[in-house]
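Here is one chain, start to finish.
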Amino acid sequence: MSLTDTLTRGWTIDAFRTFWAHPDPSQLPAIRGVLTEDIVGYWPRPIGVVREPAPYLAVIGGILAAYPDFSLVAPEYAADGDFHFVRWVAQATGPDGRFEANGCDRLRLRDGLVCENYVMSDHPFFARVMAAAA
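Its structure:
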């Protein structure tokens, strides 16, 4: 099943894992389909609070522009009602070589769509993402 087919059911951990295992910027329009119009993303500094789908997707596009070989796995996942918690481990190559970053997303869904996402990580790679997304 393709990512687009998976996303027609709304946000799922399977779709999250599928996209981030081999992220492709051409799939960003499919991801748009699982975001509410009023999505709020709370990204690590210096990115900060991002509102609405286009700026939210620009951050994801910035990740992929800054780190073309970026990928992540989600070894732990839990859900409680509309709240979903994903622990992730990312890998990519930056100016100083290969790195690994850890983090956790706390997503809130409304009618199966992501309306809020807290991305928690203190890895400095987010500073480079901000420059790429600008």
